[in-house]
Amino acid sequence: MQKLSNLDRKYEDFRWFFTSNNVLVVGGKSDEQNEIALENFSKPNYIVMHTTAPGSPFMIIQSDRPTKKDLEETAVFCACFSQQWKLGKRLIEIDVFAGEQIYKLKGMKTGTFGLNGTKKTLKVRPELVLVIQNGKLKAVPKTTNQEKLAEIRQGSLSKLEAAEKISKIVRNKYAFPISKEEILQAIPSDKLSVR
Fold first, then answer.
1. Residues 132-167, buried b or exposed e (16+ Cβ, 10 A)?
2. Residue 165, strand partner residues
3. Dihedral, CA of residue 142, residue 136, residue 98 and residue 33, to nearest 10
4. How far is CA 178 from CA 12, 123, 138, in A?
5. Is the pTM for the entire model greater than 0.85?
6. What are the residue ranges in the chain where pLDDT is below 50?
């Protein structure tokens, strides 16, 4: 497993956002990144989330005392970047547990972990809005207090079609210069609706 030095612990290389309470949440974009994120951004008492079904980032709340809103927003974010989004699930189950409950045995596949003890499960609706956080375009839960550039839900558009639509909305409504590459990095992978 790749261990990051303090200088290399750049959360922006991972999947991330700030909650409405300005709490950073960091997770992986792939199985490999899930491993690195858990190794470098998790602490025993930090809350970690993953969809109940396989195929999502492990999202780690960077706070000893996240609020209920932090938990709900992290659950929505986790759901929106999961396989369950692509499958069109309108309510997605998210498992909630502490970092200290996670274990890894020799022979487990990359990105696969075990869990000790009990977990809590939240059911959330996968809906996002586009905002600017730390100078970057981010798709975040719609409960954010920031100015919303566009809304994203499950739908029938491909990622590229959604990016083109978002580009037009942002250009026409906000005169904000943004590249398609930035949009593609910010939004879920497919089956999108934009307004």
1. ebeeebbbbbbebeeeebbebbbeebeeeebbebbb
2. none
3. 130
4. 18, 33, 12
5. yes
6. 1-8
